[in-house]
Write a structure and sequence with these properties.
about 220 residues, alpha+beta, 2 domains, four-stranded mixed sheet, 10 helices, 6 strands, globular
Length: about 220
């Protein structure tokens, strides 16, 4: 919602540094929410450090039914120290600090095998371009060229910032289609890029899912 691509959601995702003191504080906060761990794996640093997510359901009357997912490592996303350094900090009406992933990190985190994440990823970039196009820095422009998934916007960016687009085509070849304003080739390349990212996410989760299956069998 903060980045302009609102989606109705009943859960809260928390990325945490899996240090003992942090996890103790998080455990106390989850206790206040009357949150129970609703699936495997259990809430332990070892599982967080291997890339698992820990799932909770809250039972406190003010948040009854809300799901909380806790992670420490996200596929394709920088280490926690880097995420923390780049974070966006908000203040709520009571001056409580709320720390959000920076947009580039959120975009990387959305490159999953789930169908619902890809339209959201596209909207996040579109909203950022619309909001900041008139005052964009070189860093923002390069970020849009690297991540934009809307053919029309991508061709317009490549036309306006051709030098940067040519440079970045070495790491994102589909930009060559954007530079040529070849919309058909660009759409094909975007679809291929998405397919490759979905496959990479499935490969990442395969051993973790196998471990979860073993844990489920052990519980039974």
């Amino acid at each position: 919602m903060f980045y302009g691509a609102a989606e109705f959601s009943r859960d809260t995702d928390i990325v945490v540094l899996a240090a003992a003191e942090n996890l103790d504080r998080l455990s106390a906060a989850l206790g206040e929410l009357e949150a129970e761990c609703i699936a495997v794996p259990p809430f332990e640093a070892a599982f967080l450090n291997r890339g698992h997510a820990i799932h909770f359901r809250c039972h406190h009357p003010e948040v009854s039914g809300m799901r909380v997912d806790v992670m420490s490592i996200l596929r394709g996303v920088s280490a926690f120290d880097t995420l923390w350094e780049r974070r966006i900090t908000l203040l709520d009406p009571s001056d409580t600090q709320i720390h959000l992933l920076a947009l580039p990190d959120l975009v990387q985190a959305k490159k999953t095998q789930r169908d619902k994440d890809w339209p959201m990823l596209r909207r996040l970039i579109e909203a950022d371009i619309v909001q900041h196009r008139a005052t964009a820095s070189e860093t923002q422009i390069r970020f849009w060229l690297e991540e934009c998934r809307s053919p029309g916007l991508l061709m317009d960016l490549a036309k306006r910032h051709e030098k940067a687009a040519v440079e970045l085509a070495a790491v994102r070849p589909l930009l060559r289609g954007a530079i040529r304003s070849d919309e058909n080739a660009l759409r094909e390349a975007l679809a291929t890029e998405e397919t490759e990212q979905r496959a990479a996410d499935r490969a990442y989760w395969a051993p973790l899912k196998a471990e979860l299956e073993q844990l489920r069998h052990s519980r039974r």
